[in-house]
């Protein structure tokens, strides 16, 4: 018969071999949600589901803040929702790319941008002439 879907999770942990604890779990890898939204009239990009991968949210937030030159906040888990990272502005495409760089499989990233709320293309100066 077909083998059941499994995934491996490597979590940094002091005292484990090489400082990393590896476990194999049944089922498909958990989804990480990246979506755009508006909060108090400002556009934001929200990232949820990182705790399943053992991601250090503070470190990722600091990295995104430097890379995207924008404000980034870590939201603690509350009664209404799960813990996540909030990036100021629509950075959905860049965030999905960064998640790939830190080892989250692209198939596990659920990317939802609301209509009209997509990341803007990098502006190209009009005075630049390509030869």
Q: What attributes characterize this protein structure?
A:
globular, two-stranded antiparallel sheet, single chain, 5-stranded mixed β-sheet, 131 residues, alpha+beta
Mean pLDDT: 80
**What fraction of residues sit in β-strands?**
25-35%
**CA-to-CA gap between the ends?**
59 Å
H/E element order:
EEEEHEEHE
- Classification by helices and strands: alpha+beta
Q: Quick one: biggest sheet?
A: 5 strands, mixed
Shape: globular
> Unreliable segments (pLDDT under 50, ≥5 consecutive)?
none
Structure annotation, total helices? 2
| Helical content band | 10-25%
> What is the radius of gyration?
18 Å
Structure description:
Helix content is 17%, strand content 32%. It contains two helices and seven strands. The protein has a five-stranded mixed β-sheet with strand order 5-6-4-3-7, covered by helices on one side. A two-stranded antiparallel ribbon has the order 1-2. The longest helix is centred in the middle third of the chain and has 12 residues. The N and C termini lie far apart (59 Å). The mean pLDDT is 80.
């Amino acid at each position: 018969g077909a083998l059941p879907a499994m995934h491996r999770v490597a979590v940094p942990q002091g005292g484990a071999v090489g400082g990393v604890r590896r476990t194999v779990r049944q089922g498909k890898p958990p989804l990480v949600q990246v979506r755009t939204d508006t909060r108090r009239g400002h556009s934001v990009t929200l990232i949820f589901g990182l705790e399943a991968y053992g991601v250090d949210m503070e470190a990722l937030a600091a990295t995104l803040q430097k890379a995207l030159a924008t404000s980034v906040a870590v939201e603690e888990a509350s009664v209404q929702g799960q813990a996540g990272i909030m990036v100021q502005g629509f950075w959905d495409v860049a965030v999905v790319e960064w998640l790939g760089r830190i080892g989250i499989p692209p198939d596990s990233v659920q990317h939802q941008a609301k209509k009209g709320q997509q990341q803007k293309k990098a502006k190209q100066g009009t005075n630049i002439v390509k030869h």
